[in-house]
Amino acid sequence: MEPRDKVTREKVLAAALTLVEENGIEGLSMRKLAAAVGVEAMSLYNHVPNKDAVIDGVAELVIQRMVLPEPAGDWKADLRALADAFRSSAISHPHAARLLLTRQLVSGGSLAASDAALAALRRAGFSASEAVHALRAVLAFLVGTVLREVESTPAFDGSDLSAVARRRADLSADAFPSLAESAPFLASCDHEREYTYGLDLLLSALESRLNR
Amino acid sequence: MEPRDKVTREKVLAAALTLVEENGIEGLSMRKLAAAVGVEAMSLYNHVPNKDAVIDGVAELVIQRMVLPEPAGDWKADLRALADAFRSSAISHPHAARLLLTRQLVSGGSLAASDAALAALRRAGFSASEAVHALRAVLAFLVGTVLREVESTPAFDGSDLSAVARRRADLSADAFPSLAESAPFLASCDHEREYTYGLDLLLSALESRLNR
DNA sequence: TCCCAGGTACTTACGCTGTAAGTCAAGGGA
DNA sequence: TCCCTTGACTTACAGCGTAAGTACCTGGGA
User: Fold this and answer.
1) Which residues of B touch A185 (CB under 8 A)?
2) Start-to-end C-alpha separation, chain B
3) Would you tell me which residues 112-131 of chain B have a C-beta closer than 8 angstroms to some C-beta of chain A?
4) Chain A nearest C-alpha distance from B145 (Å)
5) Which of A21, A172, A211, B83 has its CA 20 to 30 A from that of A94?
6) Residue B105 backbone phi and psi in degrees, to 5
7) Percent of chain B at pLDDT exceeding 70
8) A181 touches chain B (CB under 8 A)
9) Residues A54, A48 contacting (CB under 8 angstroms)
10) Among the residues of chain B, which ranges form H helices?
11) Which CATH architecture group holds B4-49?
């Protein structure tokens, strides 16, 4: 009855995910991962071809944990719900989300979400072709915003402050008047709000394109 | 007259950029970089604090090479020109662009571009506050699209083909009808066109928000 | 002229990385 | 019973970033 603690690919990936979330992507090494599953480094290679596969697996794990919302009929609300789901699952694993956003993976996990988004767009009345364009536009925005959001929480070392201070110094030398003018709004960033703003922009543009 | 070949921070960063473009980011090591400059690894530390600073420097180098377009009066055309300039300079250094897009850097190099974009938005009639939101939305989309574009050119190893084939297999099992329906349009991606489509979407939404 | 201070480059070394290669014990099918 | 697969182990190698110490060369003050 001791096969209970047998190493499996799933256990390796789960351990890798927690390791990444605790120590960042840099903190993931095959030796540390092996130690986390209670084994020597080289034993991992019985379950996983190499480190890159581990990283891909971690990224897929995050996607798979995304819970898809039930379609409600209103295509805009449905797209928004899908985007929300994507964003939430990314934000709940900020370090691993970097992987997901940075590498494009042809993972099976994201297929269901893409299908749901395309279904909503088709229901709205877009052609199969334009639905793809719309999906790609929304997805690009989504990746960009979420990336900014997860990157602006860099395990808070105090270096940010000096950087901001330096930026301010550059601004006060008003070679950049428009920048200086907007400085108070640039200084802080409410990610939730920026996300909503941009998504609204895209959805309303899609809607008016539909009525054209 | 032999100070001609003295090592400088600039030469180090320039060599790092070409190294990154030739071999990818993984191919950049302090030893190889030193060899490229004609020096031993540790000598680099006389000009650069550590490897991270080298990477930041490479990213800034790419931004600095971006040529800003002259403002022409039409705010939409101006924003489009700025976006084009950003995209072009990123695409011309695909590997280094990953760095630029992935890390958020408070570099001085991007200040001029941000200022120009904000100026165009202010000229259009946006408030200083909303101009920032608009800029962030466009920038998020820009980062997302360009990231997808530079990542889909992964020094062409043939593994892409098998991945696409696998995706097709998943599709034919029509658990995802909308996906299957759009499969022919998903199979290929004209990056230029997707970029234009999304940017048009955002700009038209901004315009109608302005007239509201 | 001499001398020396400072900066540049070099050498050595440490601990870490991913992984190729070979060994060995346990368990299940013939 | 034997054998053969499977998974874990050990050893080893080449490469990494960089801390620490050393040697040289060059320009300026005495």
Assistant:
1) 128-129, 132
2) 67
3) 112, 114-116, 118-119, 122, 128-129, 131
4) 5
5) B83
6) -115, 140
7) 87
8) yes
9) yes
10) 9-23, 30-37, 51-64, 75-91, 94-102, 111-124, 128-151, 159-172, 177-187, 191-210
11) Orthogonal Bundle (1.10)
Q: Amino acid identity, residue A136?
A: R
Are residues A176 and B112, on separate chains, in Cβ contact within 8 Å? yes
Q: What are phi and psi of B89, to 5 degrees?
A: -70, -30
Architecture field, domain A67-210: Orthogonal Bundle (1.10)
| A111 sits within 7 Å of strand D by its CB | no
Contact list, A202 vs chain B (CB under 8 Å)? 198, 201-202, 205
Assigned token pair, A87: 């964003």
> Does B45 contact strand D, using a CB cutoff of 7 Å?
yes
Numbered ranges of CATH 1.10.10.60 in chain B? 4-49
Contacts of B174 (CB under 8 A, 6+ apart): B180
Characterise B38 by phi-psi region: left (phi > 0), alpha (psi -120 to 50), beta (else).
left
d(Cα B171, Cα B177) in Å, to the nearest integer?
Answer: 8
Measured from the CB, is B48 under 7 Å from any atom of strand D? no
pTM comes to 0.91
Q: Sorting pLDDT into bands at 50, 70 and 90, what band is A106?
A: low
> Would you mind telling me the total number of residues written for chain B in this entry?
212
Strand D lies under 7 A from the Cβ of residue B29: yes
Span B84-110, pLDDT tens digits: 999 999 999 999 999 999 987 766 778
Give the count of beta carbons closer than 10 Å to the beta carbon of residue B118. Answer: 25
What are the residue ranges of CATH 1.10.357.10 in chain A? 67-210
Instruction: State the residue for tokens 């109608």.
Output: B208
Question: Among partner residues B136, B145, B205, which is closest to A202 by beta-carbon distance?
Answer: B205
**Calpha distance B126→B148 (Å, rounded):** 30
